[in-house]
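Shipment paperwork, digital attachment
Item: protein structure file
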Amino acid sequence: MAIRMIAKELYLLLKEVEKIEKQLKNAPADKHEELKDQLRKATAERNRMRNILEGKKG
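Attachment content:
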């Protein structure tokens, strides 16, 4: 995957994590577990993409 594509995907994942974090702050208690699960998955994917990008740059 090209660095530009990885960087674009990383940017989208960063925005997704931010969006879920905001939703979690404003969500009713019954939605917290679902949002925490989404946040965990998005954060893991963001970290994976960040590691790939760092590996490509290095």
